[in-house]
Amino acid sequence: MSWFANLKITTKFTVILCVMFVTLMGVNAVDDYLRQESLIVKDATDNARILARQIVETREYMSSVVRGEPEANFNLVPQVVATQVAKRITTGSKYYVRQVSLRYRNPANRPDAYETAMLQRFGREKAAEQWEVVTIGGKRVFRYLLPMTADASCLGCHGRYEEAPAFVQARFPKGHPSYGYRIGQLIGAVSVSIPMAELYRQIGINLKLDLAVVSGVVLLILAAMSFMVHRSIIRPVRSVATSIGNVAATGNFSERLGKSSDDEVGELVGAFNELMEELDRTTRQRQESEDRYRNVLEMAQSAIVTFLADGKLIIANRKAEDLFGLPKGELLGVSIYTFFEEGDAVKGAIETYLREGAAAMIGEATPQRIRSIRGNVTAVEMALSVSRSDHNPLFTAILRENGRY
Known about the structure:
The structure is a single chain. This protein folds into three domains: 2-205, Beta-Lactamase, CATH 3.30.450; 251-290, no CATH class; 300-404, Beta-Lactamase (2-Layer Sandwich), CATH 3.30.450.20. Helix content is 54%, strand content 19%. The chain has helices at residues 2-5, 9-65, 69-72, 78-90, 113-125, 155-158, 166-171, 196-250, 264-299, 318-324, 328-331, 343-356; strands at 96-100, 130-136, 139-149, 186-195, 303-307, 313-316, 365-371, 377-389, 392-404. Strands 6-5-9-8-7 form a five-stranded antiparallel beta sheet. A four-stranded antiparallel beta sheet has the order 1-4-3-2, with helices on both faces.
């Protein structure tokens, strides 16, 4: 994740918001889909139950009121009436309804494999109803079955052969499996089928509407969060970073930032302003100290120089310019060892000090001879001291003239 760590905060925040949005939408879509599926299956079950009860009640009602009418009009047979009512009710709908029986008379009432299994189960377990989503021919289908049991009115046609009406006997001879029922015995079931593709189509419509609404709400929330984070965090932090860059580039510690809040970001801005104030004060004090030091150097009656361990001059006063015969602009950066007639001895003392922490000449006054750039030789008494700056030793030499040759 090093690539992510190297991104700008704005980019990181945008990426995080996008991931949050996609995740929330994915979770919501899955949850919404499952809820929609559950609700639609429940709705289908309720509708199928109502429809099946209507068919059963129609059949039972016709069985209880008709007498000899079916002999003259076969369409008044209770089963036929119930079947036609089911067709009329479901015309133009996604429901497919029919009556099925293991001992059917009408071939249209012959059960399929699933219905056969359910009828056999009803015969064993006396279940009130059965519904589930099954796969038939590679397609998912909602199936609902409501069992029907024989009552006294049913036995007029489905009881003993000898007691059946003549028109029934004429159609279905003795020994036909549709005879011989007893009261309370399973006689068949109302079967309701719905292709799940029809239900899923409604789920898709509902899901799109829900996702559109939820997406709008989530986008508004994320946009508000993004605005608040940019305004309260990213923008102030960017201002601090810009100011630090300006300070690093110019060395000007007078810059201050406006504090717009008292939260953690406001504390950061306040701490930055306090830091700038302290650095500004420290810088002024150091500048004043350096100015005083330079004034002291310039007023000194002896040459005073400061150099690094390699001899490179970094500070020199006016007397040093006269002694070495070079103006300060040309003198700084030149090795002091080149001006000593015994420069190797001075250099050796410096190296010894660096190795052992002590050496001759350091902290002592020793006679030396200085040769200027013009070749003039001056006898001096050198007082050499050492100090440290940023862990690098600085050597300061006070050269008091004893005479020129």
